[in-house]
Amino acid sequence: MKAVSDWIDSCSKEQLTTYQEWFILADSDGDGRISGNDATKFFALSNLSRSQLKQVWAIADAKRQGFLGFQEFVIAMQLVALAQAGYDINSDILKAEIDKENIKSPVMEGLDGLIDTTSLTLHSQPEAFGTAQPQPLPLNSWAAPKSVKKLPLNAVTSIIDGLKRLYVEKLKPLEVTYQFNDFVSPLLTDSDFDAKPMVMLLGQYSTGKTTFIKHMLRCNYPGAHIGPEPTTDRFVVVMSGSDERSIPGNTVAVDAGMPFSGLTTFGGSFLSKFQCSQLPHPLLDEITFVDTPGVLSGEKQRTQRSYDFTGVISWFAAKCDLILLLFDPHKLDISDEFKRVIGSLHGHDDKIRVVLNKADQIDTQQLMRVYGALMWSLGKVLNTPEVMRVYIGSFNDKPINEGFVGPLGQELFEKEQNDLLADLVDIPRKACDSRINEFVKRARSAKIHAYLISHLRNEMPAMMGKAKAQQRLIENLEDEFKKVQRQFHLPAGDFPDVEHFREILSSYSIDKFEKLKPKMIQAVDDMLGYEIPELLKKFRNPYD
């Protein structure tokens, strides 16, 4: 991420002004985005080979959004200039030692004539296109030039836009009809699709969750409290903002620009224990962190929580791109509440990473034993055949205690820390793929939910004995799940938790549910089978 910002910062004021003019010229529909078609026409003026331009697009559109914003366009132009100067364009070039400040603007043949033609067009149609002469862009600014023309609201110019449209037209009607939002997950809003990737930290108290975030940011943030006792008593979302401030949970939940409106379902008791900490930071421009209260041990302490703790964790798990489970070498026991918390992450196993923090507090021999004990404890809780990836280190701003770990341990910690940092840096690049993955997962879940609800509705009598029939269905819910699974040939692993489903179902009248609507199911099947693949094909690398 820093490598990208260095490339932007290295541009002179004159270069940025030039690139702004080129960006407006290349942006055929004036929406502030260079599509694949726009790029193929404009980049052809560079006279580079197709394979070179394929690499240019792949590196510039690292997040796989399917378009180039102004920031990505500037990087593309710098890469074109390097390719013209004889450099080999590959994925490592952003990290290479290159004198970026002396990179000249690329040579684009026939561009001057296009600029003259466009200037005449802009002058002759001022109402349609706005001002003809773009204002100079401030140095170091990453903002795209202002759009010169408004597009219809339903225009699809990126993968995320396409997912929004598919959700509203195909998936949302199914969710509303069968009350998916009450049983599984609240309805999605635009802010859910547009949100930055999120990283959630989980662990028992004093395992270094808040310190880890401070270590990543290299600074303090509003609402950060650190101590050996359970200091973080609330969920804190640490995200980018224009200035340092803390926003109370109720305010955050009603802000349409933030993806947290679904948390209102957990009530005022939870929202009073929720806050958003904002501060300007380059890392937070790419990632949002979620700090959580330390998981308690003991049944008495668990019952003192005034909200559904595991329910909130499950809600965040669905939204997050990465979940870090932090452990302390001196706190390896997994309490009952921690077991429930880890159990609530079911279905998101691919997002979980384990961090053995504060590992410099023990010597190498003890570390080996602690690592074995941790893997044994996790094996009893995580019901997966795969071995979980465990990062070992000491994620704080203090120097590593060499007296304990020795030079070998220090080298190990540095390698582990670099691996974890690489995992975190990779999150923004995978964000678009993660959105697609979660969307498809949600669609399949909504389909199964519709089958379950409609099946239960069909089992109800038309007139007499409704109360008894409902009681029987709720008591024999496992058998009803198996019937639906066999009837529609569905994978058992995709079905919801029986107990959770039973708990919510008991407050509804099953005979009021809708019967199965095959057209709605078919629309979702078509979306999964044809429309999403077509969307990905439309916004893939235009040089593939």
UniProtKB/TrEMBL annotation:
GO terms for cellular component: endosome membrane; plasma membrane. GO terms for molecular function: calcium ion binding; GTP binding. It is found in: Cell membrane; Endosome membrane. InterPro entries: DUF5600, Dynamin_N, EF-hand-dom_pair, EF_hand_dom, EH_dom, EHD_N, G_DYNAMIN_dom, P-loop_NTPase. Residues 193-428 form the Dynamin-type G domain. Residues 15-86 form the EH domain. Pfam families: DUF5600, Dynamin_N, EH, EHD_N. It is a peripheral membrane protein. The keyword Calcium applies. This is EH domain-containing protein 2 isoform X2. It comes from Vigna radiata var. radiata (Mung bean). The gene is LOC106766919.
